[in-house]
Amino acid sequence: MIPAPFTYRRASSVDEALDLAAQSDEDAKFLAGGHSLVPLMKLRLAAPSTLIDIGRIGDLSHISEADGHIAIGAMVTHDQIARSRVLAASVPLLADAAGRIGDPQVRHCGTIGGSLAHADPAADLPAVMLALDATLVVRGSSGDREVMASDFFLGLFETALAPGELLTVIRVPKPASAGWSFQKFSKRGIDWAIVGVAVQGNNVALVNMGSTPLRATATERVLASGSGPHEAAANAAEGTNPPTDLNAPRTYREHLARVLVRRALEEAGSRA
């Protein structure tokens, strides 16, 4: 439970963080809240040669409205998202989901950027970003580039971030539909979801139903045809590849997906 040796560096700005990354090996990692990376390091499943602490970069801690969307800095914590009046009014799905992550300690330390960059398919926020059609702004040595959430998650713990790139801002469009819901099933409130569902309008995204967060495309097609929640939810597991582990077998996760999608669609419909 002791990490491999590493060099610790602290950055005071995004540019300094990128410079430090450029001076380090390709396996250098940015350290945000640390709730995902540090446990992996203790288990030696991750062994970066350099840790670049970005926790004190004030430019990455903001929530603001601009041009029909909400801009969220990558260092904004789950607790700040959950308590944000701006998000509660404009994007309540995100505020609600963030307020149900882990426990207070996790919510006060964990950051939205860290959660998305870690790309754990069992995490809540990656699926929420899919349901919201969010855009992720990534900065590297050649400047900024924008990546749609649908293109960001490539595999288990794998994203579109290149070595030395830093996720800086998440842009969430203000939803056209008022209907939303976030449902998840876990053994305890602080545990990872065995299965979760994020719904915004007719967008349906799934937690822990594959190696990445997934859109429930079959369900979305049925909804687009005019069918109701029961018919659409029956297709929730189509095209997914949920794991079998100590928490649940694949078939149980498929069943949960159908149940939770139906509940989420019904709740979203009541809010529309």
Return the string of H and E elements: EHEHEEEHHHHHHEEHEEEEEEEHHH
Number of domains as seen in the coordinates: 3
Question: Which stretches are low in confidence, meaning pLDDT under 50 for 5 or more residues running?
Answer: none
What's the CATH class label of the largest domain?
Answer: Alpha Beta
- Largest sheet, strands/sense/barrel: 5 strands, antiparallel
> What is the average per-residue confidence, as pLDDT, rounded to a whole number?
95
CATH topology of the largest domain: Uridine Diphospho-n-acetylenolpyruvylglucosamine Reductase, domain 3
Total number of helices: 12
What shape does the CA trace take? Answer: globular
> Could you tell me the strand content as a percent range?
15-25%
Roughly what percent helix?
25-40%
Instruction: From the alpha carbons, calculate the radius of gyration and give it in angstroms.
Output: 18 Å
CATH architecture of the largest domain: 2-Layer Sandwich
Spatial order of the strands forming the largest sheet:
4-5-10-6-7
Structural class: alpha+beta
Q: How many β strands by DSSP?
A: 14
Distance between the termini: 49 Å
